[in-house]
Amino acid sequence: MEDKSKTFTWEWEDGETGLIRTIKIPMPNLDRDYDPRESREIILDRKLRLDNVEMPDWIEIMATRLAAEQGCASVACKMVRLGSETVLDDCGDVLRRDGVCEQRGHGRRDDGRWDAPGEVFGACAGAALYRRSAVREAGGFDERFFSYLEDVDLALRLQLGGWRCAYEPRAVARHAGGGSSDQLSTPVAYWTARNTVLLLSKYWPARWLPFVAYRQLSWLDHAGRHGRLGTHVRGLLAGLRVGISGLRERRAWRTKPVPVEVAVPRRPWRGSRAGGHPRSGF
């Protein structure tokens, strides 16, 4: 890798073809601590190779946007479904006060509504680019999450630290949702239930617990109707156990520059206007 004042050059071996690929990005103001080989979400990452197929100019577009947005710690791209590229998978994440993280545009047609660059709460780690200095400052990915919601936890810590997340729709990744989950010995439903409790234990104010209770009861009902109640309950119990360590960290996050009420703003969490609802526009 070559880091010069006007050009950023990166070479890597294509895992499928074995060919050496090279990109040169003209960036006169490139953040000098940026090294894509250190990023969890770069093309060489195993998760990306399993779950995603990036467009040829994905890294160029994402790196250019990150260099241009000095206040941004990460960049989210437009993710479409692998094999059904007219259907959106994720256009940046939105976190609600009931503890749910919604994927903007998920399941909707790619009809142009999500083609405007802007800012979002956070990026799906299936295909994202991070600023190394910001991730280091925030403490990196929390390994207690192991799988699922680790990107939401990092996005929230970055927000609390005063960083932002850019959305870049020109960079497109085709995503096979859950494509690597078949390697897990424990079902996804277990990890999402467990890690939701861990996330909430670290940051959530007590006054938001009624919203959380409503959502958890609805998830229990949904799990029961789909034969996953046992798995979901085991995940919740595991979350309560690991959440004890999260409770010990709460005071540290209250001293950050941005309060959690700003990082997770008030927005509808039920009904047709809630993010994730078919009529919500999300």
Quick structural summary:
The chain has helices at residues 46-51, 58-68, 132-138, 150-160, 188-203, 209-225, 229-247, 250-254, 260-263; strands spanning 2-3, 7-13, 20-26, 52-54, 72-81, 84-90, 93-95, 101-103, 118-120, 128-130, 164-175. The protein is of the alpha+beta class and 282 residues long.
Notes on the structure:
- The chain folds into two domains: 32-182, Spore Coat Polysaccharide Biosynthesis Protein SpsA, Chain A (Alpha-Beta Complex), CATH 3.90.550; 188-255, no CATH class.
- Helix content is 34%, strand content 21%.
- The chain is built from nine helices and eleven strands.
- The chain has helices at 46-51, 58-68, 132-138, 150-160, 188-203, 209-225, 229-247, 250-254, 260-263; strands at 2-3, 7-13, 20-26, 52-54, 72-81, 84-90, 93-95, 101-103, 118-120, 128-130, 164-175.
- Strands 4, 5, 6, 9, 10 and 11 form a six-stranded mixed β-sheet that branches.
- A hairpin with a 3-residue loop joins strand 1 and strand 2.
- Helix 5 runs parallel beside helix 7 (229-247) and helix 6 (209-225) packs antiparallel against helix 7.
- The longest helix has 19 residues, at 229-247.
- The radius of gyration is 19 Å and the shape is globular.
- The termini are far apart.
- Residues 1-6 and 25-50 have low confidence and may be disordered.
